[in-house]
Design a protein that fits this description.
It is a single chain. It contains 8 helices and 7 strands; from the N terminus they run βαββαβαβααβαααβ. By secondary structure, the chain is an alpha/beta fold. It has a single domain, classed as NAD(P)-binding Rossmann-like Domain (Rossmann fold), CATH 3.40.50.720. A 7-stranded parallel beta sheet has the order 3-2-1-4-5-6-7, with helices on both faces. Helix 1 packs across helix 8 and helix 2 packs parallel to helix 3. The longest helix is centred in the middle third of the chain and has 29 residues. The two termini are about 30 Å apart.
Length: about 240
């Protein structure tokens, strides 16, 4: 990571919320490519074959402790941060409580901010780094019943672009990946009718595999993406059409 034009070497990677779903696919993709990977998780044990540290991204002290523990496992500062941890609390606007709105923003948006802020310390010193924020097509496209989630995911775009303008001269990039519908446990529970409705709006005619999102994240973390920063990369089969 110290020289973007140099041959690719194993990176020190931290994936928040890397114990399931898209986060797990991302973590495994980095690990299988030979990178040094640590994930964060709130409870339980890390997935088999991956090292993990406990972290509550809504608490700055917990984030700092998690980074410190991860850096001890990695043997060096975090070079690639993938801020993936997120929650949903869906309901219609008129029924949404302040608590439900605040909780989602605190995890999805402020949590990413806390992690990026902590990661930037080592990246600034090294004059190199990759910050990749996992958003959603919903953040750009909107969705009924998800005003809190959409707002939190849209906010990541402003966060990444402000980081780019602030730290771009120090060899640090910040980008956003916006997945659409992905084949996960959650989409696997959809009724056939609901699944057919969603598929009808996707030009590609299918949901994405988690590995397809992971491949884009790995590209943005690699040397070939050294001149890409402040970008939003949709992985949605054409659903959002870049909105």
């Amino acid at each position: 990571m110290t020289n973007p034009s140099a041959p690719s070497t194993p990176s020190a990677v931290l994936v928040t919320g890397g114990n399931r779903g898209i986060g797990l696919a991302i973590a495994r993709a980095f690990a299988e490519a030979g990178d040094d990977v640590v994930i964060t998780h709130r409870s339980g044990e890390p997935p088999e074959g991956l090292r993990g540290v406990r972290c509550d991204v809504t608490d700055a002290a917990s984030v700092d402790a998690a980074f410190t523990a991860a850096e001890e496992l990695l043997g060096r500062p975090v070079e690639v941060l993938v801020a993936n941890a997120g929650i949903t609390k869906d309901t219609l606007l008129m029924r949404m409580s302040d608590e439900d709105f605040d909780a989602v923003l605190d995890t999805n948006l402020a949590g990413a901010f806390r992690c990026a802020r902590r990661a930037s310390k080592g990246m600034i010193k090294a004059r190199a780094g990759r910050i990749i924020l996992i958003s959603s097509v919903v953040g750009l496209y909107g969705s009924p019943g998800q005003t809190n989630y959409a707002a939190s995911k849209a906010g990541l775009v402003g966060l990444a672009r402000s980081i780019t303008r602030e730290l771009g001269g120090r060899g640090i990039t910040a980008n956003v990946v916006a997945p659409g519908f992905i084949e996960t446990e959650m989409t696997g529970q959809l009724t056939e009718d609901r699944r057919a409705t969603y598929l009808a709006g996707i030009p590609a005619g299918r949901f994405a595999r988690p590995e397809e999102v992971a491949g884009v994240v790995r590209f943005l973390a690699g040397p070939d993406a050294a001149y890409i920063s402040g970008a939003v990369v949709p992985v949605d089969g054409g659903l959002g059409m870049g909105h």
